Amino acid sequence: MSNYSFDVLFIGAGIMGSASAYALSKELDSKEQNLSIGVIDLDLEGEHSSTLKNAGGVRATWRNRANIELCKYSIDFYETISEEIQFRKSGYYWMHDERSWEEIERNYPLYKKYNLPVELYSTDDIPRFLSFVNNLEGISGLSVSKKAGLIDHYSLREHYRRHARERGVKFFDRIYVKEIFVQNGEASQVIADDLRSSDTESKNLDGIIQSILTEGEVGHNFKEVTFKCGTLINTAGAWGPRVSEMCGFKDTMVKPRRRQMVVMKCPEVDLSSYGMIIDTSDIYFHEESGNVLAGYSNMDEPYGYNLEFSFGGMDEESLFVNYIWLPLWKRISKFEKVKFIRGWAGIYAETPDRSGYLGKVPGLENIYESIAHTGRGLMISYGAGVALADLILEGKIREELRSAEDLSRERPEGDLFEGLHL
Ligand SMILES: Cc1cc2nc3c(=O)[nH]c(=O)nc-3n(C[C@H](O)[C@H](O)[C@H](O)COP(=O)(O)OP(=O)(O)OC[C@H]3O[C@@H](n4cnc5c(N)ncnc54)[C@H](O)[C@@H]3O)c2cc1C
């Protein structure tokens, strides 16, 4: 006997699950159709989700049409709710090394085709735009992208959820999906652990949630809850491969990897009129409540679900010093005096070509996915939600987002490779 039953059931309520449930409910409204929609999450607040760990950057300057169209469509939408999501459309300023300069010159005609306001400048122009940069060594050029900037991920996610709830979407918290019934390629029911029962309150629930996310099931005896579903959607982010496996689909492409961010005090550098700034060292940084938020994607980081922050400290060995502070100080001498304030770790879901998966899961009839949009989940979320809703309701994606069909699993190898990535 099922406890709940939904026509459409999402597993994962981060930015992708929330945006997709919202977009689907909105489409249904406009078509005057009605489907019941449920969204399940172990950690609805998102304490450990990638959505609340990201840098807040949005841009549409990608190599592939699919990613450009989804981001551009999303940014158009973010502009309509800019105050609510604190959209600071103050641009992306990217200092390129030789390799990434070649890449951006190659991509530039496509940006123009999509009417993206991007301009390329020579190294000599840099002091005009970024007056605090006093060492130009290793820079081959600067790109300034204007349809880009920073948004508040929490407010955007809440916008999606609020408007989805208004349309009848039900969100479930502290529910961990552990089994999915699939027969003849169709998912019919989901079995989950229900962590909401009162006796878990005394058992360090947050610790349990974190260990479920990092280790998988941890052997607690929770009450089970079941959800019948007509259509099932995997929006479990970096945990997407676990959900795929429950459906009988072994996902060898999506790999989780820890990414870390720091906040530091640096009174001598005022970045308040800029959006995201990117150095040739691949450090990205921006102003955040009077401080500087910076991140670096350490490619030595092993794959796995590691949520421990390890970048802190000012000693010689510290990763913060070596990966962030020293390269920044080399580029901008005003970064000499910094105070480390805090940091955190989140999980990226990586794919071989650094583009996500959106579409029907191959070999399965009623199971879709929108996962592994790597460092792009926030900026792509609205467009990806709309594209997924189109696929579910119409079997094809609307013209403006048609290239998103390339994000299905059945794409030709390497075609969607994204070079300019962080
Ligand atoms: C350090 C860092 C910086 C980033 N910077 C940017 C940036 O500047 N711009 C940008 O666009 N993107 C950025 N990203 C990427 C972006 O954060 C992600 O692409 C995006 O948040 C993914 O959203 P999601 O909803 O797919 O996953 P998540 O937000 O992780 O949500 C997945 C949810 O699924 C739930 N879940 C998983 N398995 C189960 C299960 N079995 N049962 C129930 N619930 C389950 C989890 O609890 C989680 O809440 C960054 C990421 C990191 C880590």
What this model shows, in words?
It is a single chain. By secondary structure, the chain is of the alpha/beta class. The protein has two domains: 4-53 and 154-253 and 353-407, FAD/NAD(P)-binding domain (3-Layer(bba) Sandwich), CATH 3.50.50; 89-149 and 255-350, D-Amino Acid Oxidase, Chain A, domain 2. 27% of the residues lie in helices and 26% in strands. The chain contains nine helices and 18 strands. The strands form three sheets. Strands 1, 2, 8, 9, 10, 11, 17 and 18 form an eight-stranded mixed sheet that branches. An eight-stranded mixed sheet has the order 5-6-4-13-14-15-12-16, sandwiched between helices. Helix 1 (15-30) packs parallel to helix 5, helix 1 (15-30) crosses helix 9 (377-394) and helix 2 (65-80) packs across helix 9. The model has no long low-confidence stretch (mean pLDDT 95). Bound molecules: flavin-adenine dinucleotide.
Bound molecules: flavin-adenine dinucleotide
Question: Helix-strand pattern, N to C?
Answer: EHEEHEHEHEEHEEEHEHEEEEHEEEH
CATH-derived architecture of the largest domain: 3-Layer(bba) Sandwich
Mean pLDDT: 95
Unreliable segments (pLDDT under 50, ≥5 consecutive)? none
Query: What is the class of the largest domain in the CATH system?
Result: Alpha Beta
Largest beta-sheet characterization: 8 strands, mixed
Give the distance, in angstroms, between the N- and C-terminal Cα atoms. Answer: 47 Å
Count of domain modules = 2
Shape annotation: globular
